[in-house]
Design brief:
This protein is α+β, with helices and mostly antiparallel strands. The protein has one domain. It contains eleven helices and five strands, in the order ββββαααααααααααβ. The protein has a five-stranded mixed sheet. A hairpin with a 2-residue loop joins strand 2 and strand 3. Helix 2 crosses helix 9, helix 6 packs across helix 11 and helix 8 crosses helix 9. The chain starts with 15 loop residues before the first strand and ends in a 12-residue tail after the last strand.
């Protein structure tokens, strides 16, 4: 007799999110909700809508290409949410506006916080290229030159890949020592627990969500590890005979391919559970022991607020003020989306 197939869980992969400063962003379809708990205990909520380029143009939904598009959109959304969370928390209101801040706002329509986010992001990209592209390849070629037996593309790719993973793990472990980052990691745990609770079909409350694991297989941490691991295999096609800086340039140009292939793997892994997917997904799950921490009930409540508001069809009666004495709600339209009305 053939075994009966388990009914598909329609809730899996329906909602995703990320942790921000004292809050959580959740996205379900075109709905994006950012909830941040202020120092006064109130939860500020910002709603917006965004239609992915993948839906607006079929070309950008082609396999491999859609992975690059998703990565860029996620990066853009992350910067936007981090900036919004800082403003919602009130960091930009702690001091009076200076002449320089006023000049920025009048000339560019931006404040110092926005400029700092932009500069920090630009420096982060430069640092990432140096640490993850140039340095590992340079050191791998330096060691390769010491022995003819190591003069092979596979060795260069393997050593550089291991170095990238070590740098990434070391960086995450170091920043996790910062109190503010630990708070973000607690909200990261709240995001995972609330999603796990929802996907399990349990009643979505802070008490129920607290019972679930904080490790989620479709976390962005897993995606980064998949990129790092698959890059070892893909970069073996780069000839080891080339100068190290030429190898680095080629690898940077190949990064969109690596991201695209990694994205396709995650789609495959979400539908199939086998030894291959378990091996590639395992490092990301292990790393979540660092990138997530156990949240308290208030942090879980913030995550649940974002999750429920991102799915108004499933939770039509949810009051955004449930978990705070007073909740500020701001609705707005986003690029590619629809204009919202102020609440």
């Amino acid at each position: 007799m053939s075994k009966e197939k388990k009914p598909k869980n329609e809730r899996l992969g329906k909602v995703g999110g990320e942790a921000v400063l004292e809050g959580v962003m959740m996205r379900c379809g075109e709905n994006i909700v950012l909830s941040v708990r202020g120092e006064d205990g109130k939860i500020a909520v910002k709603k917006s809508q965004y239609v992915s380029l993948r839906k607006r143009n079929k070309f950008f939904n082609i396999p491999i290409i859609r992975g690059v598009v998703s990565f860029i959109e996620s990066l853009k959304m992350s910067f936007s949410c981090l900036s919004d969370s800082a403003q919602m928390y009130g960091l930009d209101e702690e001091a009076e506006e200076t002449k320089f801040e006023r000049w920025l706002r009048e000339k560019f329509g931006k404040n110092v916080l926005d400029v700092a986010m932009f500069i920090g992001g630009a420096l982060g990209i430069v640092l990432a290229i140096g640490l993850f592209a140039l340095l590992p390849t340079y050191l791998a070629n330096l060691i390769k030159s010491s022995s003819p037996a190591l003069d092979h593309s596979f060795f260069v790719s393997l050593f550089a890949g291991v170095m990238r993973i070590a740098i990434f793990v070391g960086y995450i472990c170091l920043v996790s020592l910062m109190p503010d980052i630990r708070r973000v990691f607690e909200y990261h745990g709240a995001e995972h627990k609330s999603i796990m609770c929802y996907e399990a079909g349990a009643e979505l409350t802070p008490e129920n969500a607290a019972k679930y694991r904080r490790f989620h297989p479709r976390c962005g941490t897993s995606f980064i590890f998949v990129i790092l691991i698959l890059s070892i295999l893909i970069y073996t096609v780069v000839p080891a005979s080339l100068p190290w800086y030429v190898q680095s340039l080629i690898k940077i140009c190949m990064l969109p391919l690596v991201m695209g292939v990694s994205f396709e793997f995650l789609i495959y892994a979400g539908k199939h559970e086998n030894l291959f997917t378990k091996i590639l997904s395992a490092p990301g799950l292990w790393m979540q022991r660092v990138t997530t921490r156990e949240p308290d009930r208030e942090q879980l409540a913030v995550a649940i607020t974002s999750l429920k508001l991102s799915m108004p069809e499933e939770f039509p009666d949810f009051d955004p003020g449930t978990y705070s004495k007073q909740t500020e709600v701001n609705e707005k339209g986003a690029e590619g989306g629809k204009e919202g009305e102020s609440a």
